Amino acid sequence: MPTIEVEVRGEMPPDSAEYARTMVLAVARHARESVLSARVRLTQGRDPKAERSVVARATMDVNGRPARARVAAETTHEAIDLLRNRLDYRLARLEHWRLWPGSMSADPYEQRPGQPKP
């Protein structure tokens, strides 16, 4: 199980940190690669009555590669739900790039199937 650090800034519902941890853990559990750790930051804007004043950010360490997401919403739970969806998308993109030859890689000299040797 990955370590998930949650930071809360501003006035948030008391269960928001635990809800964020639960949602990010759900994303990590169905990831195809190992999620080593995750960091979530929930921020309430200065004016809570402003439109989309809650910002949620997350960075996941997926087997050494970062998966980042940022969303804004009107409520804390809405922001966390949107963040979960965005992280799902980011993990799918990482999987896509890992599987297809010629895709981006953390190691530019990594040999991929179907590529000529440099």
UniProtKB/TrEMBL annotation:
Domain of life of the organism encoding this protein:
Bacteria
Q: What InterPro entries does this protein map onto?
A: RHF-like
Q: Which Gene3D superfamilies match?
A: Ribosome hibernation promotion factor-like
* Natural source organism: Kitasatospora camelliae
Protein name stated in the entry:
Sigma 54 modulation/S30EA-like ribosomal protein
